[in-house]
Amino acid sequence: MAVVAARELRDGEVVFVGIGLPNLACNLARRTHAPNLVLIYESGAVGAVPDRLPVSIGDPALVTGSLMVCGMADVFQLLLQSGKIEVGFLGGAQVDRYGNINTTVIGPYERPKVRLPGSGGAAEIAIHARRVLIVSKLSPRGFPERVDFITSPGDRVQRVITDKGVLEPEGPRGELVLTALYPGVEPAEVQAGVGWKLRARPTLAKVDPPTPADLRLLRDVLDPQGLFLKS
Amino acid sequence: MQDAVARFVRDGDTVVIEGFTHLICFAAGHEIIRQRRRDLTLCRLTPDLIYDQMIAAGCARKVVFSWAGNPGVGSLHAFRRAVEHQGTLEIEEYSHFGMVARFAAGAAGLPFWPLRNYAGTDLPRANPRIKAVACPYTGEALATVPALNPDVTIVHAQRADAQGNTQIWGLLGVQKEAAFASQRVIVVVEELVEERVIRGDPNRTVIPAMIVDAVVVEPWGAHPSYAQGYYDRDNDFYVGWEAISREPAKLESYLDEFVYGVTDRAAYLKKHPGLLPRLKAKTQIAAGVNYGF
After folding, report:
1. Domains of chain B, CATH where assigned
2. pTM, whole model, 2 decimals?
3. What's the ipTM?
4. B268: closest CA among B278, B282, B252, B254?
């Protein structure tokens, strides 16, 4: 997933990096095909070049050697709200048929079954980044027909990168459809991890497997402790 | 620290201990727990482990926040228990930008702040204090959040002079806005410096003495959070918190040993031998600039 997500990023783009797997994907892209990727973290680091994979998005390694460090009012107003961010990268506990993301509650808001962390910067990333990418592992609970709570609306979602294939929005309502499969995966396996009747493009693209160099970078350099690669 | 908390933090107060991952003043949080403050409204973008501890200790009536998790690790379990099972904790929830905008309004002396957010999200449904307004110039609909003016804000920083002129570098979070929005401000620093050090590099001053009520010198006062150039984040502690906070009994014994069981920060540090070699920051000095005219 991290490798496929990294391939979505073009050299020179300005990307707003979220916590977890997106963080890994952006740092992989920066060390492979996109050395001029500008990583912006909501903590205020602009043009970060972290020497170690940041455990959190407020890691001190994001500051050392970055191009700019600003307060969070500047991050959200001058950079994000004003439209300077090309790519926003989000994960989520639940993603629905229209790419809406829930990171707030499972169950009713007033009496939640599971209280999730909440929006953080995700709501504004989903609204203001020009292109939104989602990285999330497939499961019927993780991909319900409708999310229990819309934390981040799916309007600007362009790709949903899962562990078995890639989904993209189609049609006027932006319904997610299957567009690409990982090697050796059948469409039925993707359907098994999605809680609605998933439509597929007539011709499905094949996703290239990670190169040995990608895997070496991920496992030996970027995340040797398996912080984000555990799943 | 004892004096500052005793004088400036009162039962029922709206309290802000800010710092985005960086410079979170655990020392102040622990002192508030020790002095058994009650009915506090605790505001922060990320409640983090410190509010998890304060919730577990019974200090909080309400939490105002935008992301309540243990970054890169998992949950704040005392917070979750209070919200999911006990219903003992009131919450008021925004996005990060919403919280930032609330502090900005409070700091600027405005009643609210407009933002182009929340279209298509369920957040306004969950929080009726997020409202909308029509722009008087263009007519477009904007979301609004109310000003946040805390009774007391506690800011951890690298250094200040005795008057409270405070300098921060590295991640700046919303420290400046939170301090300017607050009725009372306590600054806690790694190092007390002469006024000439502050005057030598005035662009680095984030909080001026005129809004500061107390300066506390407390080296390592942010641990397990960090202070850029002083010590690294104690990520092992954050990872270990998952197991502690998951079990109420373990959390209770953590508080007994490391909060109630010590009189001050110096005693807390004695219980954490080896922090210095493990977390001391590497050196990367910024070149100076010419401030002359």
Report:
1. 2-94+149-275 (3.40.1080.10), 112-146 (no CATH)
2. 0.96
3. 0.95
4. B254
